[in-house]
Description:
heterodimer, A: 117 residues, 7-stranded mixed sheet, 4-stranded antiparallel sheet, 0% helix, globular, B: 110 residues, mainly beta
Amino acid sequence: VQLVDSGGGLIQRGGSLRLSCAASGYTFSNYWMHWVRQAPGKGLVWVARINGDGSDTTYADSVKGRFTISRDNAKNTLYLQMNSLRVEDTAVYYCARTQTGGYFDLWGRGTLVTVSS
Amino acid sequence: QTVVTQEPSFSVSPGGTVTLTCDLSSGSVSTNYYPSWYQQTPGQAPRTLIYNTHIRSSGVPDRFSGSILGNRAALTITGAQADDECDFYCALYMGSGIWVFGGGTKLTVL
Lengths: 117, 110
């Protein structure tokens, strides 16, 4: 059972980037999935959530309208499309799974996104 | 804007007991927020310690315990060990598909 996140890199302010998270070892479509980020030296910040069939999404105010979370259950993959990137979006982005009861029980290793000015 | 506050730092002696708390700007933390706690060492992904206020995740030793103390969620560590020196985060489920993490507590064991 694991999550492998990828797609991070160095991008200029105003640019776009798509992160991916490959799930394995469990029935992907049965679980809500999330992106959580952590700026260098800072704390964890919840970014976005998607339900099991992808029909419902929620976002933190700081990314609403710029980021889109999606999933492809046939490929067991979670995505985060990030547009209009800002310097303050620089962070390690973790994908994570929540269990019934609303807690994060499985985390990816994180992928670093650096937005340059 | 909902803010979840934790002590920025805390110090405990080896073998000692420490209680970290998780406070909500908009009111009291209750079990309805499904408080959970995570441990993170530098460069690593978080590890789940406690969920649903007090339930220990698989493999977590019983010297970690969760509760509601007054109007806050609390994580108590008894018999602190050197490898407990790391960052601890609480998370609250606000409902409607929204979560908020606390700012984290850096625990020093000395």
